[in-house]
Amino acid sequence: MSAETEARARVLRVIAAGRRIQDPNDPLGAEARARLPEVTGLDPKGVELALSAHLETHPTDAEIDALLARTGRAPRCHVVLAANVCTAPLRALALAAATSPDIVVRPSRRDPVVTDLLVRALSTDEAFVQTHHASLTRASSIAPAPGDELHVYGSDASIEAVTRGLPAGVCVRGHGTGIGLAIIGRDAALEDAAEALAWDVVPFDQRGCLSPRFVLVEGGEHHAEEFVQALDAALSRAAARVPRGSLDPALAAEIALYGASMDAVGLFLSRPSHAVGFDPSPRALVLPPAARVVHVVALAPTDAPNLLAPWAPYVTSVGLCDDGALARAVLDRAPFARRAPLGGMQRPPLDGPVDLRPSRA
Hints:
Elements: H1 3-22, H2 27-40, H3 44-53, H4 61-69, E1 77-80, H5 88-99, E2 102-106, H6 113-123, H7 126-131, E3 135-138, E4 149-153, H8 156-163, E5 171-175, E6 179-184, H9 190-201, E7 212-217, H10 221-241, H11 249-265, E8 267-270, E9 275-279, E10 293-298, H12 304-308, E11 315-320, H13 325-333, E12 338-341
Parallel strand pairs: 1-2, 1-4, 2-3, 4-5, 6-7, 6-11, 7-10, 9-10, 11-12
Antiparallel strand pairs: 8-9
């Protein structure tokens, strides 16, 4: 078997293990559903949404081809995971399996659940272990050697801390701080756009790097405020199906502080399930807390470059309803961001890391 064929086979075994976790009737799937609400803080229906709709368990052949083309090859691959998105370990370990048959993973201490289940599933997978001579080891620390790859997920600060003092010759692929934003064009059907965007906000309670935090609305203040009202209603409807997880006092205080700033410049709609802030004349973008809190601004295409300048390096995903002037202005500033239709921001193809920006390391 060629090296690429072996790498593909290992990736497919990781995905097969993910299907076990996705299946509520499999013991691994049942355990995931029992453990994840407590460690993630998501409502049980939020956990079910994550596992049933956002585990990448049915990639196409073309997606696997793209994933393999975006990975290197190394004798060993070390993976350091973050806790923001409970399903993220599946993609991360698929990338690691494409890179090497010898994988060492350090899960997040706050949420090791999916990692632990994948390790357990693959340790008893005869095709993974015996046929393809692969191993997946859980570790509390990592010690990559020259020639190894290290894949690090988390904030820019955490990547810097993990990679400080590494020996020369370790290939580091860092996937750092990222945010999503959405663009509502001048001619958008606002009710439809709001309904679709709500289902980009709800998964993982907006904690992932693909989650939209900013919404840029073309077409003037009145058009933008109409969208705010439509989004508020759509998020309420979504919460009736998938409630938001509980808020700790610190996060509730962050939302209150953000709301006060929005009340001072525009509008703040606070609900038990979500919040929407609106700035009709933005001089800067204000990042809201990641708790189903969305910051909406009215924006002309000519103003987009200046407003986005501080944020463009962090844009991981852009949700679009058209390819109008504002969309083009934003994508010019964020050329490495994934592009998705509204409603599809949280379902990227399994064609590589979700973060397609150059490595942050």
